[in-house]
# Entry
Amino acid sequence: MRGGTVATLVAPALIVVGAAVIAPTLWMLYQSILYQGEFSLHHYQRLFTSRLHQIVIRQTFELALTVTVICVAIGTPFAWFASRMASRARNALIGIVVVTFFASLLVRTYAWLVLLQGSGLVNDGMIALGLVSEPLQLVHNRTGTVIGMVHIMLPFFILPAYSAFLKVPNEIVQAARSLGATAARAFLSNVLPLAASGIATGTTFVFVLSLGFYVTPALLGGGRVMTAPMLLARDLSRFSEWGTASALGAVLLAATVGLAAVAYWLIGRRTDADRAN
Amino acid sequence: MTTKHSVILLTAITLGATPAVSQEMTFASSGGAYQEAVRQVWLNPAAEALGGVAVSEDTYSDAMSQLRAQVATGAVTWDLVELGSYDCVVAANEGLLEPIDYDLIDASDYPEAVRAEHWLGSIYYSNVIAWNTNTYGENGPQSWADVWDVEAFPGTRALWRFPMEMMEAALRADGVASEDLYPIDIDRAIASLERIAPHVAVWWESGAQAAQLLRDGEADIVALWNGRVSSVISDGGAVDFTFNDAIMNFACFGIPLGAPNRDTAMAMLAHIALPESQAQLPMVIEYAPANPAAFNVGIVSEDAAARLSSAPGNIEGQHIFNAEWWAANIGAAGDAFDLMLLQQ
# Structure
């Protein structure tokens, strides 16, 4: 394809990205260094000296890390076993994962609220079965928030991990086993390295997207969980503090871009190493 | 103001029909059943009285951002906007609103708290104490001190996850007199909130969520807006509430700076502010008119009045929200409130 054609085809997308992403981002960065009409690091200073902002930023990262660890722990075995099944069972399992994308995030969050609350299905069921005598506090706290977020984030991990596992031939496992490896050893030493890029992609997706949660912690956290986006919304729409909100946005953006860069660098190295072998 | 006077004013508005007044205007509010009610009982009759003004409507998602953008760019499309009390004060402070023409609009019956140079109250609503009747029967908590008294009223609480109205409630629970609520003693309010926090099952984020907590019995005592409580009750929820000690808040009308049909909006507002117009709103939706004279024109029945914040008999034990204080102190109060919650 000639250069001119490429440029013509790419131009509309570039214009949209420029107008909808790059320009507002630059405007946000500009707002973050403006205080009472003058250039100043006042908003960043506030961000790093206000206890509220520090606690919220820490809590946001802790929450994202917890959700990521759980998604990897649940998602990896699921994706692996799904990838080893006959095609019909496989499609059914992955179909179930994909179907969760069809319901809106808000609906799924409210559904968890109804399921997990004191008189909800989960607690009533456990009491009926005699597993617990008092309803457990499953929601309106960090536990409920993590449950809801894991449910929403799991497909973002499973799908890339699954497609990576799919490319691992069965013969690899058989060869390892025939040489005396246990199933666990074969998985850890042979399968996992081959699927590493898919797992890393899924992990990055989950972690980065988890930093941006608003509705789920707001509804399932019972008011005791506050994420950076919730603080942003508060600063913006309720307090009209554009400067502080922009500075917080800039810090989140830098953290996200930094993490994504590290992840892609690791994935890239991995892929190069695979090719070299 | 007597009925006779309002008829004269009405006629004056209609006939005086200043030729400069345009025959179109745009009204913006938060939408939903509420805006439909406003259209039916306030906008349409006022438009008719002015000789058939064509009223366009807009529904905002983030009123302040849109208002700021309109005024800043000089592309003002709203002629009359309804905002929350806090937003009205902020908008006025930021110079986003035209001054209200009180020669044209008779607001003499309006209490001081709900009229200002740049805005005029539209409706009242109250953050009330609601309770589950399966838990307490008819004898629920009658004051914020009762809500804070976990021995007399054992059970879980749900409060709003927002400093406004809740700090006032916390101070009342701590024994602050109604007239001493403002300026709010932030430290004292936070200390009071910390005492009740272990008994708060949920700090709710939205009115719909709070209504669900109340309906499902997830919380025994809920601080929530009276309109929401009423709909839970009419849905058959085992719920009762009291206006005693409630924090009374309000919404208000403002005219954006540089509104293209400013004079028409002003004339519309003059009609809407009449006691006879004000009295029509509770006939279609459970919100209380900002003009207290609305209860003196024989339109609002006693039954209907019993459910309205500002009705005689309900208003006495309540405290009117001071939006001016909040506009000046939201940063400090908001940070203290959120920090208190995160440390629970």
Summary: The interface with chain B takes residues 50-52, 55-56, 59, 113, 117-119, 140, 218-219, 222-224, 226, 231, 234, 237-241 of chain A (CB under 8 Å). Strands of chain A lie at 34-35, 38-39. Chain A has one domain: 51-276.
